[in-house]
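Researcher: Before we compare anything, I want clean individual predictions. No alignment, no superposition, just each chain on its own. First chain goes here; please echo the sequence and then give the structure tokens.
Model: Echoing the first chain and its structure:
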Amino acid sequence: MDINAKVFAAFQAENKEQLEAIRSIMGKAPKSGDGVFNEALRLAHTMKAGARVCGLDGIQELAHRLETLFTHIRDSSVVADGEATVAINNSLNAIEDAMTLATEGKPVPDMTAALGAIDRLLLPQATTAPKRHSRESTRQRVLAAFQSEQQEHLAAIRSTLAKAANGVMNEEDLNEILRLAHTLKGGARISGLQPVETLSHRLESLFARVKSGALPLDSSVMEVINVTLNAIEDWMGALAANQSPADLTPAFAALAKLLEPDASTTAAEAPHAGAASSVTALATPAGQFDTVRLNAEHLDRLLRSSGQLVTESLRQDQVSRALAELSHDIDEIDREWESVREVSAAHLHRLSATPEFTRVLHYLEFVERQARIISRQARQLRALQQRSSRSVRVLGQELQENVRQARMMPAESVFGVFRKMVRDVARDENKKVEFRVTGLDVQADRMVLQALKDPVMHMLRNAISHGIETDGQRKLAGKAEVGCVSLKIEAVGNRLTILVDDDGRGLDLTRVAEVAVRKGLLTPTDVSARSQEELSALIFQPGFSTAKTITDLSGRGMGLSVAYEAVSRLQGEVRPVDKSGPGTCIVISVPLSISTHRLLLVASRGQTFAVPSSGIQRLIRIKLTDVETVEGKPLVVWENQPVPLVSLAQVLGIGGASEFAVEGTQLSVMILKSGTRRLAVAVDEFLAEREAIIKNLDTPIAGITVLGGGIVLEDGSVALVLNTGELIETFKPVYAPPTAKAGETKAEEEKVSTVLVVDDSFTARTLEKSILEVHGFNVVVAIDGSEALSKLRSEEIDLVISDIQMPRMDGLTLLQEMKKDERFARLPVILVTSMNRAEDQERGLALGADAYLVKQRFDHQSLLETIRQLL
């Protein structure tokens, strides 16, 4: 994500908080002359600054006018009566609507009406007609997305059923159609299409009975399946065309005959087709959306092409080296000829008088001239090739980055619909649930978010169905009457982390073990040998469920296996994590973008492999004598913990040997991580790092789970990409206490300057933090002077950048406090503020500021140059 996108995303999140804070103040503040309006004034001022940074002139002007109005209300020159309250609320609504349009890439609308309402309070003669604002319905987006999604699901179910031979399907295909029906049901629930949801649930029940052997997949069953699929397709088609919904009664009747007595919905109880009437109008006017629907495959092909262009540019390095060697050889020939010529000059001169040698001498002169011409051309060609190679590399990287940015979108666009889904599920389960969600403004790859939509949906539904207890159970357990389910989305580095947390009953590991033994996944002896983490991981096995009854929400064990498979395909991991309180917390960690991956190239037995850097905790070199052995199994001691050691060749079964390859006296080892598990993997050599696109593997190699794909190297060869999580799972280590400890010497890292950024504006902090981090600085942030002093006392800071107007302690007071303390008195301080009056600057510099930058003329190059001068 580039800096502009980061700043806009920061302001988007900050703006929501500012609007809610101002509304809260207006709801409890007196009519005038109260200090609480100082906070409203500050919020409007910060909003104005953030809008200015983002180039949102309309929002900036309206925020400025609100700031002025709050100043007059605080000073009692304007009364916050009904007219003023309406004007303020209309202004806040206008800003909120404008941000919605700006988020969608549309221009910010005219703010004349809202500005005029405030001007009428400040200048009685100013009048402006009010202007209505419209808001695009989120539900329309959801319905439009499901229209496309359900077509893909129906086509996939039909395609999978077509593989059946004489009514027999393999278990993998049965699991797939069961998953598709389950996902179709979930999408219909999110979209509020209850008839399709119920019909999909009946279809899922039918597939479950086929899988269990209770129903044969004969012609009569296939006919009912086709009738059901056609009914869903016709119903959705009528919805899209704004026509009367198709009659679903025949499909429900056909399903009821097969599923009795298990079917809970008969033809008479089937949802009335007219239930679509309330959503039809919302789904159809596609022209209302100023968007372009782009086939995802086209965007993926463009991304792959950009990756191939970057790979080709790397391949040009080989050409450059070959040209350099050629140029060197030609120069060697030229130098050798010069030596020969100097030694034999006298003899050649005498021979020139001999007619029979004249032609030979002319030929030698011709060769000399041509050698010089070829040498000059080789140098020119090499220079031209180097310039072209650099241009191709830069353009390829730029194209790749542009395509990556085109795929980025806020999590809210995919996960925003979960609020309603959670409410609906809680209502159906007759449970009281509070849903908390944070991080919807986080930007991630569209493909990543779409791939995680179903997994997150399944986890939220499981949290309610399996986790949150009934009112009576919670009361007996001494818990609050209302259960809590939270969804937290974070972007840390180049990883997207999603936590689904609840305060329910938690995982019943005893029940998990019982089901695992019953399904043959573990023996009773294995259960006692497994850790809690290993037992918890079993819930992601296909068909694994601890539910004793099957409902339309859960009980078939498909939800979490869907999550595990989807996350694995993204080179990520999903696992339950320990928590201090009651309930269950499941964390998903995947790459923020699948456009490119940072990979480490390693060599093992003459082959090159790629390892995602996200799965590597540390690269170390150890002496072979430092390898310890416990019960015949090698291990290394790293960070005072025993870590099993294995060679990559041994895990992959290549080379026909298990001994370690030692380079000199050192063993090259990767410390791989997956959750709390670690594995030390020895390789022959660390080769290089690469940014590359991972391509899927074709069968039969695609079935090897430890391989996550392949990348094309610059020489045209393919390096297989290892799935670190599966690699650790494949090797079953035996943990044992070490017999001795091997020390590890850490190289002293190069000193990196740390900058403290102090600003109450989240947007301004994000802008400055992004700029500084891009240029290699460590950045610590604080929201006001008080927090800044605390950070100064607890961390090693090299320079301070501070705003002036802040709550609790402003920038000038912070500067005064720093100068009083000898520990901080000599720290360089840069004031960055919107206060551009000469007297403000003089006061700041008089107090000891080393530089003063004005936000209206803010230029990051000036900031960086100032920092470099001070450091």
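Researcher: Okay. Second chain, same rules.
Model: Second chain and its structure:
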Amino acid sequence: MVRMAQPDSARQGSPDFGPLLAGYHCLFPRVFDEMMDHDGQVREHWRPFLRMLAALGPEEVNRRFAAADRHLRDSGVFYRVYEDPAGAVRPWPLSHVPLLIDGTEWQELQAGLIQRARLLEAILADIYGPANLVREGRLPAAVVAGNPEFLRPMVGVTPPGGAHLRFYAVDVGRSPGGRWWVLGDRTQAPSGAGFALENRLALSRAMPDIYSALRVERVAPFFQAFQASLSALNRRDDSPICVLTPGPLNETYFEHAYLARYLGLLLVEGEDLTVQDDGVFIRTVSGLKRAEVLLRRLDSDFADPLELSARSRLGVPGLVQAIRDGTVAMANSLGSGVVEAHSMLSFLPALAPAVLGEELALPNIATWWLGDPSVRADVLNRFDDLVIASAFSGDIPAHVERRTVIGKDLDPKVRASFMEAIARRGVDYVAQEAVTLSTTPVWENGQLVPRPFILRLLLAKTDDGWRVMPGGFVRIADDLDARAVSLQQGGRTADAWILSDKPVAQTSLLPAPDRITINRTTGALPSRAAANLFWLGRYVERAEATLRMVRALVNRASEIGPGAAELNGDIAGLLRTWDAVPEDFISARPALVAFSALQQRELSGALPMLAGSAQSAASAIRDRFSPDAWRALTDMVEMIRAPFDQGPSESAIFDRVNAVLRIIASFSGLAQENMSQLAGWRFLELGRRIERTLATCRFMRQFAFGTPADGSLDVLLELADSQITYRLRYVMVAARAPVIDLVALDPANPRSVVYQLSRIEAHLAALPKRDDGRLSPPEQIAAALTTKLRTADVGTIGENTLLDAEAALMKLSDVIASSYFTTQARSEAQHEALG
């Protein structure tokens, strides 16, 4: 019989934290609760936390929790939602109340986790080595060979240092009696460590007094030891340790970038790497740089399209051979995901005594592999009471988008199809005991309420053996009767605090202030990162130019007369050439043309596409982007894509354009003032300067040399943001010669063509190049163009001069790409997209 437990404040009258628990009701005995025992009493190790929380008062608690949310938002922590058609990211959903674990209980749990890590490592060594477990019948061959994560090319390969697992995660929960049990193992490319770090940082800053008073074990020593173990695999001091990520579209990409920064590693994608005869190398703007250690966050099967999955576009051709040759170490080793299969859970209790000579200290959830006929028959007889899942990983075979089902929840037709599939091919399925997750408190409306959770614990292989991170990554469900928790489907996360009965050392991964070595570089710049910075600059600058054209059009919407109509037609025509509005879009009302440029989502030159492309380029280099700059880009995208409340009125369009231009100005200022002026910044600036020069040349061709119309030179001055300078100098109506001089040739005008070219030359001169005293190919193009324009006279500049300049700039962009970036193909594709 299930009963509702009342909190001990109702039973004993506890004024110190009683109001916090007024709405806290647990279902006993079916569910174990972390904070409250079966008699409704608050557990002893939770009492100090609750007293301190209550002493703060509701207003102060809410203020501190809001500060934690603000820290996460300012840090740019996000989670990508695959189901969203736009691939949207959601703010990090922090539950502000940590999970508290008593230190004594932690020691027992830690010992069981280490034993489990040793067991899985031994099984991996056997699977990819002598295969004695299969030969002796202790592990069915179908469980190994039938697993998609079993990689035959890795058989017989001994990893450097002898360990297949370097980083390992375990999902655990509680039985109704309170015993910890394992829900699943993560040996492929475990996630959660970076998010756990951010949760810890946010909460410890929001509640520093509580965090210190409770003597919470620090996590920095764990990461320090893991960092040292990776460094020990590196045979060269000048070879960076890399985090191999599948890229910014991955759901946990933020964590990849965050861990790279925290551990001092280099974040790379597959296209950043190349395999040569003597090893793996990083493509950088300075040339190839050797990589000897890769921390893998990419699924094994996608790591090498030559020997593994040919459909992969994320891996490195030849990587498997480099691993076989011993020229690169990978953590975790390719194929390590074979032991995280659900089917493995059914064999681990029996394998532990055979492999380790010990009983399994930390049990896992009861699991039955249905490849055994007798087991299969028994499961089919009690099908309704069990959970059915894939024997390996991912969705259930023939039932996509469903990872688990409970027999009794299926309608008769689906139930019959499941039973038929299991009877026909039971090797693909497992059955598991249906368990209800234990609960932990969360903060809602000024009170604590229980919610189900799963705790992910993390282990690292170090020189001293396995080490467990004293804390973890808690995932909390919103449904009180949940059996699984997925951030893809909502839910929240929390930190886990391990409470010590002794003073805790103030350990940090950061070096002591008096022992920091002076360093004015940020390490190698991968070619891909340089390319994304370059194209980010171009996309943002193109967006600014388009906005200025839209504003110029709207500014003249109220003007009447033949000249005004002709001028508006010229601006609209340029927007059509720019691919900002459809070619067949003709309207006598300028506001409709401007509205189209602001709202068209399919055209490469329209603002939504340009803003989205800029954000996409920036998302690929999140590890090199400040939170302020990222927020500016996000604000720009959101404002451009926001619907208009009252339709395409001139005033609404004008206000929207000015607001977006202010955001772009803030982004440019952040890049100019806050970004270290090293190679990455120079590529961003090169993209901006090249695009600005191209736009200015096109504006001049249209409004200085095109069909003359009254006010066309004023439009040119407005688009080049040079009206004030012109009026201060000439105090007269716009005339062609002084306008061309100011916009094209004046080296003191920061919007002029010559000024942009001088900055392009300076940036190119500072980039890595051949040490033979000669100008690099990009420098040669820039120098020739700059010299031609610097020596030009206003009277000699014509439309052909500008066309030649545009062609030279296009060639310069391509030569920069071929000289410094990953692939010429990418450059050409993006060049074509920008017209």
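Researcher: What stands out in the second chain?
Model: The chain has a mean pLDDT of 86. Additionally, The first strand starts at residue 3 and ends at 5.
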